[in-house]
């Protein structure tokens, strides 16, 4: 939230992507509720909606849960603020919470520390968050911006004061002098290095002209936010920091913030990768059909990674502020940002670590493609991404190779899709003992929609609607949810991304939203058509009858990208066919939405919707010892 605030924007919504060890692992029942309570409690106290995200379970995250948070803010272009310190004599102000021992060695130490299998070799001190102070800080900062008295601003995150001051000074036109004796402390025993490195939350640093100090402190007092002058911009080119009359830091800030050493770590393609790629899912036994196909359909749909995530999302306030247009637990979220025009933004977070394990370059591309498709399936135009690149130890040459390949994959994909990378971060050392997490490059996609009233929902909307698949289905089962859930298998090669096909599909979906051609749209990704059918039926409360082309098994479980499941009134089929043909997107009508509460697949099987929904919703509550809602 403070990253966005520091740019002059008002935070308006968030998403989170969470990854844990196996759902039935001994410690997951402790870690999952705690993390969800932390995300929900903080966001709910701030009064900001959490409109979606992901929850994924896998053995590799046991001991290394990933908590990736995405926030979105709104500002006018002319109100953009930057982090720089200019103007000799201008004052450097630290405002917000006091500085304590919490968070010392947080991200700065965690980023270079591995954990032993039996426990942490060195756990960082956890920061103490105060959402009520954060709310005051947000409102105070926005009023300071409105008053026009902030010359430069930087939030205090990783590495605390040391990072904020060096970045402000490095981006300025002079030097900076800081006196640590002036920093308000809640622990007077802190050493100078601890004061510099503390990651106590709810703090900001800014540069203010001396004549504006009175107004600055007046606004801070109004919001009950502590503000203290801790230094000033100087004529020199160095960042000088004193403590008790002694200079403890004297550096060129650019060597710290922008011109630090560049690591050239050894990289090596894993020797085991050839064998993994050769171990294709083609050797796995396929269901004979009928009862066996039904059993595997149920197994995939009700697996921990495909089941209902409402136990998590219901702990978040998804509709506070009244601008949430979509908050589907399994898919993209959407927010109205202009009440008069209906202008809105859509968000999605996606990462497929199974595909990335098989091929880091292609896997990163597929994560990007899925996020792009998720946003397009709401009717919004995907326009930009942020990312959080989660990897094991960079001191392992194989991990560095995975990381390099994934970065190259995102570069190639973003160039193909025309989506700039507006920011992000890297999380290394996600490793317990000798076990690195699977490479997890998370992509957060932002889309724009002219009017949220045109949005597409994922659930079937009307009995009698036709059901169709947009895009071509290929036998892409390597790395699939089916292979993992049914056979505990990971091997082969992931599907090949097709970015022109993704763009063509997106344009069809966006045009359909504007023209109100579709009743629903659901991207096809993890779990393939099987999961999309189940979720669309459950979310809409309506059954569906389909007759699939070719092999029913492949049609249900393939994870070929650039596809979507849609429903529409029969009278609009001709318009959709013309639109799909014009963009070169294959279209296959496979069935109808039914008033009968069941999912029927040709002559193969029929699953009662109420029974399936009960199983789908019960997975996480049962594991957490709670009753499904």
Question: Would you write up a description of this structure?
Answer:
With 629 residues, the chain is of the alpha+beta class. Among the domains are: 177 residues, Phosphoribosyl-aminoimidazole Synthetase, Chain A, domain 2; 179 residues, PurM-like C-terminal domain (Phosphoribosyl-aminoimidazole Synthetase, Chain A, domain 2), CATH 3.90.650.10. It is built from 20 helices and 25 strands. The protein has a 7-stranded mixed sheet with strand order 5-7-4-8-6-9-10. Strand 24 and strand 25 form a beta hairpin. The longest helix is centred in the middle third of the chain and has 21 residues. The protein is globular and about 85 Å long.
SSE blueprint and pairings:
Elements lengths: L1 H4 L4 E11 L7 H19 L3 E8 L8 E9 L16 E6 L10 H4 L20 H17 L4 E4 L4 H11 L4 E5 L12 H6 L5 E6 L4 H10 L4 E8 L4 E5 L2 E6 L1 H5 L15 H6 L11 H12 L8 H4 L10 E4 L5 E4 L7 E7 L2 H6 L1 H17 L4 E10 L6 H21 L3 E7 L3 E2 L2 E2 L3 E10 L16 E5 L10 H7 L11 H17 L4 E4 L4 H13 L2 E4 L5 H6 L6 E5 L4 H10 L4 E8 L3 E4 L3 E4 H16 L5
Parallel strand pairs: 1-2, 6-9, 14-15, 21-24
Antiparallel strand pairs: 1-3, 4-7, 4-8, 5-7, 6-8, 9-10, 11-12, 12-13, 13-18, 14-18, 16-17, 19-22, 19-23, 20-22, 21-23, 24-25
Helix pairs in contact: 2-4, 4-7, 13-14, 13-16
- Per CATH, the architecture of the domain at 301-305 and 456-629 is Alpha-Beta Complex
CATH evolutionary superfamily of the domain at 301-305 and 456-629: PurM-like C-terminal domain
> What structural class do the secondary elements suggest?
alpha+beta
Average pLDDT reading = 92
Helical fraction: 25-40%
Rg value: 26 Å
What's the arrangement of strands in the largest beta sheet?
Answer: 5-7-4-8-6-9-10
The total count of strands amounts to 25
Largest sheet: 7 strands, mixed
Distance between the termini: 30 Å
DSSP helical segment count: 20
CATH topology of the domain at 301-305 and 456-629: Phosphoribosyl-aminoimidazole Synthetase, Chain A, domain 2
Strand content: 15-25%
């Amino acid at each position: 939230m403070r990253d966005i605030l520091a740019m002059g924007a008002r935070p308006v919504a968030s998403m989170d992507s969470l990854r844990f060890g196996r759902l039935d692992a001994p410690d997951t029942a402790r870690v999952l509720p705690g993390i969800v309570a932390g995300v929900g409690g903080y966001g709910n106290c701030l009064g900001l909606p959490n409109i979606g995200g992901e929850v994924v379970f896998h053995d590799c995250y046991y001991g290394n849960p990933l908590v990736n948070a995405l926030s979105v803010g709104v500002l006018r272009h002319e109100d953009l603020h930057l982090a720089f310190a200019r103007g000799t004599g201008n004052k450097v102000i630290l405002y917000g919470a006091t500085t304590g021992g919490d968070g010392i060695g947080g991200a700065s130490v965690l980023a270079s520390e591995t954990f032993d299998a039996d426990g942490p070799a060195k756990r960082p001190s956890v920061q103490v968050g105060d959402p009520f102070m954060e709310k005051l800080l947000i409102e105070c900062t926005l009023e300071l911006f409105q008053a026009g008295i902030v010359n430069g601003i930087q939030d205090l995150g990783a590495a605390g004061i040391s990072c904020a001051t060096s970045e402000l000074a490095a981006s300025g036109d002079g030097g900076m002098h800081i006196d640590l004796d002036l920093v308000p402390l809640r622990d007077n025993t802190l050493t100078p290095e601890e004061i510099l490195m503390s990651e106590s939350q709810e703090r900001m640093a800014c540069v203010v002209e001396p004549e504006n100090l009175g107004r600055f402190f007046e606004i801070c007092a109004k919001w009950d936010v502590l503000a203290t002058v801790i230094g000033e911009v100087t004529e020199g080119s160095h960042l000088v920091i004193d403590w008790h009359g002694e200079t403890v830091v004297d550096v060129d800030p650019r060597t710290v913030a922008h011109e630090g050493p560049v690591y050239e770590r050894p990289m090596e393609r894993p020797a085991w990768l050839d064998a993994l790629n050769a171990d294709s899912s083609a050797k796995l036994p396929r269901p004979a059909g009928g009862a066996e196909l039904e059993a595997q359909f149920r197994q995939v749909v009700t697996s921990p990674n495909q089941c209902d995530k409402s136990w998590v999302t219901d702990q978040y306030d998804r509709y506070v502020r009244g601008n949430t247009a979509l908050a589907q637990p399994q898919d993209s979220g959407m927010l109205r940002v202009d009440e008069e025009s209906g202008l809105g933004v859509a968000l999605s977070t996606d990462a497929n670590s199974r595909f990335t394990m098989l091929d880091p370059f292609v896997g990163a591309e597929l994560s990007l493609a899925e996020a792009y498709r998720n946003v397009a399936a709401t009717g919004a135009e995907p326009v930009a991404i942020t990312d959080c690149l989660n990897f094991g130890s960079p001191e392992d040459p194989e991990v560095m190779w995975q990381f390099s390949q994934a970065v190259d994959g995102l570069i190639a994909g973003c160039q193909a899709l025309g989506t700039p990378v507006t920011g992000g971060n890297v999380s290394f050392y996600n490793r317990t003992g000798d076990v690195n997490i699977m490479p997890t490059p998370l992509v957060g996609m932002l889309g724009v929609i002219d009017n949220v009233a045109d949005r597409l929902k994922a659930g079937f909307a009307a009995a009698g609607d036709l059901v169709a698949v947009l895009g071509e289905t290929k036998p892409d089962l390597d790395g699939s949810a089916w292979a993992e859930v049914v056979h505990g298998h990971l091997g082969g090669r992931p599907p090949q991304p097709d970015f022109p096909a993704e763009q063509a599909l997106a344009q069809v979906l966006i045009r359909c939203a504007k023209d109100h051609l579709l009743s629903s749209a659901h991207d096809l990704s993890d779990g393939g058509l099987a999961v999309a059918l189940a979720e669309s039926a459950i979310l809409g409360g309506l059954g569906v009858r389909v007759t699939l082309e070719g092999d029913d098994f492949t049609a249900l479980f393939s994870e070929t990208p650039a596809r979507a499941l849609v429903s529409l009134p029969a009278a609009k089929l001709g318009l959709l066919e013309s639109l799909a043909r014009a963009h070169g997107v294959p279209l296959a009508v496979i069935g109808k939405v039914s008033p009968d509460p069941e999912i029927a697949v040709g002559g193969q099987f029929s699953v009662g919707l109420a029974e399936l929904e009960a199983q789908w919703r019960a997975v996480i509550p049962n594991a957490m010892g709670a009753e499904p809602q």
